[in-house]
Design brief:
Distance between the termini: 27 Å
Strand content: under 5%
Structural class: mainly alpha
Radius of gyration: 17 Å
Largest sheet: none
Number of strands: 0
Helix content: over 70%
Shape: rod-shaped
């Protein structure tokens, strides 16, 4: 299972959530950089770059959820994440 392998390699749900949030910020940066760097190409190219990078965020959020579920089952969920789960659940 991929999630177990990722967990064994040291990847935790917090890492995936941080990557998802970073990819959202990178989406805006990629869009703005493409818009400014290639002014002759128009907005369409900038939009394509922004959408391309923006598609990473749901994948990272999904991995974060899967890892979080695995950590709950495995008993390795961190205390901070456990506290958040108690507040929402």
């Amino acid at each position: 299972m991929i999630i177990k392998k990722m967990h064994d390699m040291g990847v935790r749900s917090e890492h995936a959530y941080i990557a998802a949030l970073a990819s959202i910020g990178l989406t805006v940066v990629a869009w703005a950089a493409s818009l400014n760097a290639e002014a002759g190409s128009g907005v369409a190219r900038a939009d394509r770059w922004g959408i391309f990078v923006g598609e990473w965020a749901p994948t990272f959020f999904g991995l974060g959820l899967a890892l979080s579920h695995y950590e709950q089952q495995d008993g390795t969920l961190t205390s901070g994440a456990t506290h958040e789960l108690r507040q929402t659940g």
